Amino acid sequence: MAISQGRAKRSNTGKRFKFFRSKKLNELGRKPSLTIVNEKQIQTIRTRGGNRKYRLLMADTANVYDKKTKKFYKAKIKHVAENPANRHYVRRNIMTKGAIIETEKGKAVVTSRPGQDGTVNAVLIPEK
User: Fold this and answer.
1) How many of the other CB atoms lie within 10 Å of CB of 12?
2) Are 39 and 58 in contact (CB under 8 A)?
3) What pTM, to 2 d.p., does this model score?
4) pLDDT, tens digit, 9 for 90 and up, residues 80-100
């Protein structure tokens, strides 16, 4: 069955909507990419209007920004330390926006959306 981003089956109050048509192609949704820490792998997807979206399935490096030196570094990702999106993502090493990753430079917060941007951008967390 196709993943749909169309109207829900029920309203906020719980009333059931009667469906009068089938699913449309522009309401199509996709499974999340769930970017993991491994050797880099990108999937290209054709989107509406013939444009392309790059899904990062696996990544082993991140573009890390250091606020003190105001410079970017390409750092190797060791593992995912925390992930506020889902606590089980830490064990599976899945990166999403807001996840805290352990890199060669130190801990960093992911600021990009790896499943949609195709890159892992992060900002270093200052040591206390």
Assistant:
1) 6
2) yes
3) 0.82
4) 999 999 999 999 999 999 999
| CATH architecture for residues 35-124 | Roll (3.10)
Point out which residues pair with 16 in neighbouring strands.
10
Tell how many helices (H) and how many strands (E) occur in the chain: 2, 9
Please work out, in degrees rounded to the nearest 5, the angle formed at the alpha carbon of residue 107 by the alpha carbons of 103 and 109.
105
Q: What angle do CA 51, 123, 94 make, to 5 degrees?
A: 65
For 72, phi and psi rounded to 5 degrees?
-100, 145
Encode 68-79 in three state secondary structure.
CCCEEEEEEEEE
pLDDT value of position 2: 81
